[in-house]
Amino acid sequence: MNGPADLARIGLRWDPCGQAGLTGPLLALANDCDRAFRCIASRWRSQEEAYAMTLPASSLAGHLRSFPHQVTFATALDSAEANLAEFADGPVVDKSGAVALTRTAPVTAVLTPAACYHVYHGHQGEQLPAAGYVTTRNTCFRRESDYDPLRRQWSFAMREIVCLGTAEETASFLVEARAAVDHFALLIDLPMDWTPATDPFFRPERHPGHLLQRIQPVKHEATYGGSLALGSANLHHDHFGTAFAITRDGVPASTACLAFGLERWLYALVDRHGPEPDGWPDLLAAAGQVAAR
Amino acid sequence: MRSETEIREQLRTFVRRHAGDVAITDDTALFTLRVLRSVHLPELIILLERLRGAPIDVEQLRMGDFDGIDAMMARFGVPS
């Protein structure tokens, strides 16, 4: 069990609005975690890609309808001089902490909800001559009703390994990816279980995505302690290939991803191995073994 | 409540309407093989509810429930 005092002592700077700052040993552990995930990604010779923290809302219409309760928009003031003056001369922030907005510019950008979305957007229109493997990391934003340090946050770091290919290539990737995570978890003595899962769709009872996740094994989560999802393995079929005109073998590409929620790994590692850095496993050595297998 | 024969025929008609030229049998894994897709699920569930004369609790859906017409009949052919 991770107490707030223990986590603060090793570097957690928690903002109750749902965001975590990291310093000291916890930051070092986070960096090691990400290096380990990148090392695992090298198993597929994944190309590293880095993206901005926002996506065009126009590329996320399906997501916005499916998860309106989780979305965070990037907004700005209308740049008209009078509008800016009205804002600057007003209270700016009210007593509740809310910004006293004047007229806003059209909202066209969404703060990243999942790191892999950028990959599909970034590869729009490509014809893939072979399976493609990409790894990317981003800060992701998901609004929740409650927040819990390192376990459930408004903003968090997500490292992903994405496969774009044929249906067979993506299915094979997911088998290998889950086995790689199992091997890694074994080496660092972090017990976890894969379980079928569903995303928290808005109005799920008649949402096609939710229904599909209930009847087809398209999403599995690697859970620690019975409920904390440290990562997920996701099969999208040709959903993104079709949406972003990415083709492989002349048909819309199939895509799949392996996602790691970085802060949750920190929670699990500290919970399992204690708050003293001397007791933490050598993540890079373990990842090296996984990558070489 | 329709007869099993009637329900099967209506399901085959539904699948044929969405599957195009793909040949199917009652044990074709419709969603695994992408003959049907997620967008077809809400309409398919409503059709099944109408045919069996009873609602389907989507929170009770399980892996494989829609793997084919045979699987759908086994799971939803008779109201539970």
Describe the structure.
The complex is a heterodimer of chains A (293) and B (80). With 293 residues, chain A is α+β, with helices and mostly antiparallel strands. Chain A has ten helices and 15 strands. Chain A has two domains: 248 residues, 2-Layer Sandwich (BirA Bifunctional Protein, domain 2); 36 residues, no CATH class. In chain A, the strands form four sheets. Chain A has a seven-stranded mixed sheet. A three-stranded antiparallel sheet of chain A has the order 4-6-5, with no helix packed on it. In chain A, strands 7-13-14 form a three-stranded mixed sheet. In chain A, strand 1 and strand 2 form a beta hairpin. Chain B has one domain: Non-ribosomal Peptide Synthetase Peptidyl Carrier Protein, Chain A (Orthogonal Bundle), CATH 1.10.1200.10. Chain B contains three helices and no strands. In chain B, helix 1 runs antiparallel to helix 2. At the A-B interface, helix 7 of A face helix 2 of B.
- Tell the overall outline of chain A: globular
Beta strand % of chain A: 25-35%
Which architecture of chain B would the CATH scheme give at its second level?
A: Orthogonal Bundle
Assign the CATH architecture of the largest domain in chain A: 2-Layer Sandwich
Chain-averaged pLDDT of chain A: 97
Identify low-pLDDT runs of chain A: none
Structural class of chain A: alpha+beta
Write down the Rg of chain A: 20 Å
CA-to-CA gap between the ends of chain A? 33 Å
- The CATH superfamily of chain B is ACP-like
Which regions of chain B have little confidence, pLDDT < 50, spanning 5+ residues?
none
Major β-sheet annotation of chain A: 7 strands, mixed
- Protein chain pair with the most extensive contact, residues per chain: A-B, 17 and 19 residues
Q: Give the SSE order of chain A as H and E letters.
A: HEEHEEHEHEHEEEHEHEEHEEEHH
Number of helices of chain A: 10
First-last Cα distance of chain B:
12 Å
The helix-and-strand class of chain B reads: mainly alpha
CATH class of the largest domain in chain A reads Alpha Beta
What share of residues of chain B is helical? 40-55%
